[in-house]
Design a protein that fits this description.
single chain; about 90 residues; mainly alpha; 5 helices
């Protein structure tokens, strides 16, 4: 299991070289988030952009913590697929 975890590819954007690059990166992320289903978008936004714990996201959206985990996992997977060409 440890070996498989170490082999996982993690997509990380390279630091923006200029303000124009930062704006383009932001626009790409906003477009990708807009393509997610409403609940996945809400969970990913609250969890990662607002840095809320799962318990607080669940309370804010009136769903269970398990649902937060499910929506978050599916939303992140969809974002990885959409953003893979951008972050190569």
């Amino acid at each position: 299991i440890d070996r498989s975890r170490k082999r996982q590819v993690v997509l990380r954007p390279e630091p923006a070289q200029s303000p124009a690059d930062a704006v383009a990166l932001h626009a790409t992320l906003v477009e990708a988030l807009a393509r997610l289903p409403r609940r996945q978008r809400a969970v990913v936004t609250l969890r990662y952009l607002a840095d809320m714990p799962e318990r607080d996201v669940a309370a804010a959206l009136s769903i269970s913590t398990g649902s937060v985990k499910t929506h978050c996992s599916r939303g992140l997977a969809a974002l990885r697929l959409q953003l893979a060409p951008t972050f190569g």
